[in-house]
Amino acid sequence: MSPAPDEPTTPAEFRAELIRWAARDQGTDTRDELLRLRDLVDQARRAGVDLTPILAEVAELSSTEDRYGMGSTRDILRRHI
Questions:
Q1: 12-59: per-residue pLDDT in tens?
Q2: What pTM does this model have?
Q3: Which of 53, 71, 72 is nearest to 15 (CA)?
Q4: Please, which domain of life does this record's source organism belong to (predicted)?
C-alpha cells in the first residue's frame, strides 16, 4: 500500500509537517493536536525516518508555554524523543 499524499515519507517532509504542527501551538484542542502528532510520528516511522534529531530540532524552536495544562508544545515534542 502506498502512503497517502500528505504522509511524510522523507526526513524533509517529516520536518516540514512537524514545523507546521508546532506552529499551531496546540491549536484550540491539545487532544486533537496530540492525535495528529501521533499520526505524523507513526507515518514517518513506517517510512524509516530517523525521528529523534528532527523532533529535537523542532522542539527547540517550539513554544514553552503550557497553554492548556497538558505541557508546552516543546515538552510534548520532547516526550516523543
A1: 999 999 999 999 999 999 999 999 999 999 999 999 999 999 999 999
A2: 0.89
A3: 53
A4: Bacteria
Report how many domains make up the chain.
1
Which residue range is the domain that position 69 belongs to?
11-79
Q: Find the radius of gyration of the CA atoms of the chain.
A: 12
In-domain check, residue 6? no
Long-range contacts of 63-72 (CB under 8 A, 24+ apart): 63/22, 63/25, 65/25, 67/25, 67/26, 67/30, 68/26, 68/30, 70/26, 70/30, 70/31, 70/34
The set of cell numbers assigned to 50 is 530517523
Query: What letter represents residue 13's amino acid?
Result: E
